[in-house]
From TrEMBL:
Entry keyword Metal-binding: yes
Enzyme Commission code: 4.2.1.1
Species annotation: Aureimonas altamirensis DSM 21988
Protein's name in the database: Carbonic anhydrase
SMART domains linked to this entry: Pro_CA
Length: 225
């Protein structure tokens, strides 16, 4: 019996014989000096929406935490387990990241579950259902709009939940204080798996735009005669 699935071993072989050889010094520097990423990405654990792939990042550039539906819970300093909050605390307080990006994606299974709370749980623990209850009021509001098709409801909740997670980020004192001082910025993004399009949220309006398509480039100053 193999120690790991064969496709993982094949992938590792390609990595160690390819990318690692090309970036050996970078890996050694990261091992020696530690990581210092400027950006944290809170993304979904969906295998189709990997931030490192979407943003073409090198090792050590992104600090990524992934959970079902890329949700951020509100600040609740209880004695329970808080995986996402722990990662956020480390990124902000220890790594001192300058940016936090909440990135959702199309066709999210967690969002679909939130829109259909009466679906039979996958297990007696119903961990997904309990987790997605974080956005239950939003899901009820979107699901109750009969003028929207199912796919429109799906996309709407995917994007609205990003705005909710950004609001929840600001309930963490370490985040709100640093943002107020201009030392930390928050961003929302949504990735369309089917088209590869990335949409970014306008911090002022909450609208989503394609930054490489919809936003006009900086005007080029005319050359002086």
């Amino acid at each position: 019996m193999s120690l790991l699935p064969e496709h993982l071993l094949n992938g590792y072989r390609q990595f160690i014989e390819g990318r690692y050889l090309q970036e050996t010094q970078r890996y050694r520097s990261l091992a020696r000096d530690g990581q210092a990423p400027e950006t944290m990405v809170i993304a979904c654990c969906d295998s189709r929406a990997a931030p490192e792939t979407i943003f073409g990042s090198a090792p050590g550039e992104l600090f990524v935490v992934r959970n079902v539906a890329n949700l951020v819970p509100p600040y609740t300093p209880t004695g329970e387990f808080h995986g996402t909050s722990a990662a956020l605390e480390f990124a902000v307080q220890a790594l001192k990241v300058k940016h936090i990006v909440v990135m959702g994606h199309g066709r999210c299974g967690g969002i679909n579950a939130a829109l259909h709370p009466d679906t039979e749980p996958l297990s007696p623990g119903d961990f997904i259902g309990k987790w997605m209850s974080l956005i239950e009021p939003l899901a009820q509001s979107v699901a109750g709009n009969d003028m929207l098709t199912h796919s429109e409801k799906q996309t709407a909740l995917e994007r609205v939940s990003i705005r909710m997670s950004l609001a929840n980020l600001r309930t963490f004192p370490c985040v709100s204080i640093l943002e107020g001082k201009g030392r930390l910025s928050l961003h929302g993004a949504w990735f369309d798996i089917s088209t590869g399009e990335l949409w970014a949220m306008d911090a002022q309006t909450g609208d989503f735009h394609r930054p490489l398509v919809d936003v006009d480039p900086e005007p080029v100053a005319a050359e002086q005669p």
